[in-house]
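Reply to dn_fold:

You asked what the input looked like. This is it:
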Amino acid sequence: MKICTYNVNSIRSRKDLILQWLDHRGHDLDVLCFQEIKTVEETFPFEDFKNLGYQCFVFGQKTYNGVAICSQQSLKEVRSGLEIPSWDEQARVQTASFPSFHLINIYAPHGGLEGDAKHEYKQDWYNTLISFLNERFSPEDALILAGDFNVARTDKDLYAPDLLEGTIGTLPEEREIFEKLLKWGLVDVFRHLHPEAKQFTWWDYIGGAIWRDQGMRIDYVLASSSILPHIREIEVDIWPRRRRDPKPSDHAPVIFSLDV
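and this is what came back:
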């Protein structure tokens, strides 16, 4: 099974590019986890994905946030949100249960600088996510979290650590809360398989950053120890990020292969 996580920065704006990209890849992806779809269920392009054999489940929001899972594989259940109304006003989490594992689609808050309300919200959101895992799952479960976590885990995940020090996504508290999530019982799959690789997943639109590879790694696949041996490979596909027309997302998709 091949699974993709992709912050599309508006599914409606990026639809044509996504369809071109899937065709370019030879339609080899079984499950698509989209973040920042920026639309509600009523305006999601279900038909386009249905024509390719995908059944889509949407937890949407107007203009902001929103996540969707599109699968060619049979699902036992899909649930939306952290199941706390105040936290689910922002559509950021979906949980899909497959026959042999659980997959959580994540779009973490962007945050703000220290002292900003957005910074505190991001910290609280991560703590709420960890509480959600404690209540619904065990570290012994076959569990994968995939998505945009809006944190560059270490300086190795930045093109210029000195230049980016103190910016959103690199702050000490953000990195600490991300490590707290990992300590729950999860492994950063890309870094596990490629300990020394320099590979980014996000590049600013400004200044031709993608062509200079001036990026950050903020999109992850996190796996529990029981499912980790079944993940054979992981890659960042920069083909859709290097398009000029249609305009791409500022993220590239991360794809991993799973033997189940």
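The mean pLDDT is 98.
Hope that clears it up.
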